[in-house]
């Protein structure tokens, strides 16, 4: 017969509390994603193979699903398990990223640079960059996930975006918003260096 110590009981209470928080966050995430994709409970059940009643219980935080169930839902909602399981926290924080710590991407012609200033925790659904370019710089990009949208807000100079033979230009203070789920090209068309903030909202984006 096992003897339960006070420390053991506290540990069990901590585990139970953690499981409750995780389950609650999971339910909110599943419901938010389902509504973002305009899926009914029946449609998500059909796509995931998880019973409609179980999904409803998960969303209402009335059950602790198995890892297999979470995996099926993550596949149907096109999102990784680790993001589904990520818990929110109300704790305030300030995180500083220095210039040397900011990853830089360089275009094939070497004239355009993208500082990755987005948060790593949102990279699957939201990405943003500090884009700088020499005159004539060109950035060719492959298609992102279907339904993805990109926004290019010009700070300095002039930029042009081309998609499927359609071109549009923007100057400082202007923005271009476009579907990026097909090959697209960004060009710095000004005679001076250009700068812009580029934000990419991927298919799995969830807007409250």
Q: SSE string, helix = H, strand = E?
A: HHHHHEEEEEEEEEE
Mean pLDDT: 80
Q: Outline, from the CA principal axes?
A: elongated
* CATH architecture identity of the largest domain: Sandwich
CATH superfamily of the largest domain: Jelly Rolls
In spatial order, strands of the major sheet run: 1-2-3-10-5-8
Radius of gyration: 22 Å
- Fraction of residues in helices? 25-40%
SS content category: alpha+beta
Strand content: 25-35%
What characterizes the major β-sheet?
6 strands, antiparallel
CATH topology of the largest domain: Jelly Rolls
CATH uppermost class of the largest domain: Mainly Beta
Poorly predicted residue ranges: 1-23
Compute the number of structural domains: 2
Strand count:
10
Put simply, the count of helices is: 5
> Roughly how many Å apart are the termini?
51 Å
Write up this protein:
- The chain has 2 domains: 6-85, lambda repressor-like DNA-binding domains (434 Repressor (Amino-terminal Domain), Orthogonal Bundle); 99-201, Jelly Rolls, CATH 2.60.120.10.
- The protein has 5 helices and 10 strands; from the N terminus they run αααααββββββββββ.
- The strands form 2 sheets. It has a 6-stranded antiparallel sheet with strand order 1-2-3-10-5-8, with no helix packed on it. It has a 4-stranded antiparallel sheet with strand order 4-9-6-7, with no helix packed on it.
- The protein is elongated.
- Strand 6 (158-163) and strand 7 form a beta hairpin.
- Mean pLDDT is 80; it is low at 1-23.
- By secondary structure, it is of the alpha+beta class.
């Amino acid at each position: 017969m096992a003897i339960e110590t006070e420390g053991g009981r506290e540990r069990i209470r901590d585990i139970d509390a953690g499981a409750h928080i995780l389950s609650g966050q999971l339910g909110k995430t599943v419901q938010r994603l389902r509504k973002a994709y305009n899926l009914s409970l029946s449609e998500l059940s059909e796509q995931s193979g998880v019973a409609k009643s179980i999904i409803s219980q998960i969303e209402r935080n009335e059950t602790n699903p198995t890892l297999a169930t979470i995996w099926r839902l993550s596949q149907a909602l096109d999102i990784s398990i680790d993001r589904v399981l990520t818990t929110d926290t109300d704790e305030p924080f300030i995180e500083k990223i220095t210039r040397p710590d900011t990853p830089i991407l360089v275009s094939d012609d070497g004239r355009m640079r993208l500082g990755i200033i987005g948060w790593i925790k949102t990279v699957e659904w939201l990405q943003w960059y500090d884009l700088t370019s020499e005159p004539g710089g060109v950035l060719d990009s492959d298609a992102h996930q279907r339904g993805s949208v990109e926004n290019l807000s010009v700070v300095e100079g002039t930029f042009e975006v081309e998609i499927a033979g359609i071109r549009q230009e923007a100057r400082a203070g202007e923005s271009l918003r476009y579907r990026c789920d097909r090959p697209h090209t960004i060009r710095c068309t000004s005679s001076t260096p250009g700068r812009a903030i580029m934000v990419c909202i991927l298919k799995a984006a969830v807007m409250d």
